[in-house]
Amino acid sequence: MGIDRDPYAWIDDFSIVLRRDAIRRKAGDPAFEFYTGSKITASFWLAIVSCIAGMLGGLLPSHILWSSFIYPAAWLVVVVGVGFAVTLLTIRLAGRSIVFLAGWCIFWGILTGTVAMWGAQLSSAGWAYGIAGGIGFLVGITEGLLEHADLEGHDSLYMTGTILAPTSICLAVWFNRQDLVGFGGFQQAALTGAIAASLFLGPVMALYMAKWKSRSAIFRRASVYLHHDDFVAEGIRLLNIAIRLTPDDAVLFDRRALAHALHGDAASAEADWHQHKVLKKESLAPEISRGWLHLRHGSPELAATAFDKALSGKARPASAIVGRSICALRLDQPQQAIDMLGRLPKGERDARSLTYLAQAHFMLGHWQDAIGVATDAIEELDSPYGLTWLVCAEANLELGNNDQAILGFNRALERDQELGIEERALEGLEKVDGPVFEEDELEDFEKALSSGS
């Protein structure tokens, strides 16, 4: 069908108004994590954490650690204490967005140090370097799976880790076996682990920080906040940060203009739209944003005018097509909505646009078509929208398929992130005297329907 599986496609549909709890939950998505502090400070701190973790890892396979049952217990206590202290210090020094990376460094630092000291203690040089290089390579390729939605050039990061892990571990083993420092016991074990972890994770984390670009994450999170009027001010704050990072980005000015307009600051909105046009003269984005603004303010006629203006040229932005179809639905013109959605390029069709298409068929009384289109959105795209299930359920209700309607209304309740979905789903269940199922009960009910029992 040529449909888009972008999980964040809904963000640019500002006709959607989310519940407050849904806003908080979505804003906490790891894909929206960003960092705007000093990357040098963060990299240096992560290198220190890696070194400490490597020391702890180097102690773990040491014969001395296992000479008394007290030592392993003490080691565990120290690891827990270090983890707790690192978390608090990371928040203070670098911010919460670096906490995960600090934890990542603790885990892989301990593992790297453990492998290094294990290899160093083997009597045979062949086995020592074989273990260090072989398992080190596995450590490198596994640690390299660390990704982020806004990481530029992950392949280079992956290759760097794959090379550095076995190299640093082998170097630590060599350093230990040459006895260059003149001391043994706990100190030598800790030093071996520290060398391996620092030389591996220090450069990898520095490269990760250098390649972590926060602009897109800030933009996405700010856009999420625009889906509820109570959070618009926070969206503006984030967009201010993004514009400071990339002051020549026209897209950011357009989005901040929409935010100002939603917040009731028309003067600031117009100023940002003017700046957007200065940076990108032929852009249609301001008209599209004005269309979303009018939809949010309950004026589909004005929104239709704005979207039509955006569609008047050669370019046919998908967001303008979708926005114009929503206007048609709200103006009780479902056939026009179907015609508009038919103009969407195949690659731009997603679960949300299919949901609007199903809604248009429902309004025309084409119950079976509505069910078919909604089912495509659900089965082919795993639609996350309660509205998709709601349209499907209401169409089944019209056809007298009460059990399917009950299933659909309950599925809509599972996805009731938009305002109004819960009320409509409960109203539908009331019409058929259907129960609200718990998760396990709903699964059993769906299986029973599928089996025909």
TrEMBL record:
<feature type="transmembrane region" description="Helical">
    <location>
        <begin position="126"/>
        <end position="146"/>
    </location>
</feature>
<keyword id="KW-0472">Membrane</keyword>
<dbReference type="InterPro" id="IPR011990">
    <property type="entry name" value="TPR-like_helical_dom_sf"/>
</dbReference>
<protein>
    <recommendedName>
        <fullName>Tetratricopeptide repeat protein</fullName>
    </recommendedName>
</protein>
<feature type="transmembrane region" description="Helical">
    <location>
        <begin position="189"/>
        <end position="210"/>
    </location>
</feature>
<keyword id="KW-0812">Transmembrane</keyword>
<feature type="transmembrane region" description="Helical">
    <location>
        <begin position="70"/>
        <end position="91"/>
    </location>
</feature>
<keyword id="KW-1133">Transmembrane helix</keyword>
<feature type="transmembrane region" description="Helical">
    <location>
        <begin position="98"/>
        <end position="120"/>
    </location>
</feature>
<feature type="transmembrane region" description="Helical">
    <location>
        <begin position="158"/>
        <end position="177"/>
    </location>
</feature>
<feature type="transmembrane region" description="Helical">
    <location>
        <begin position="44"/>
        <end position="64"/>
    </location>
</feature>
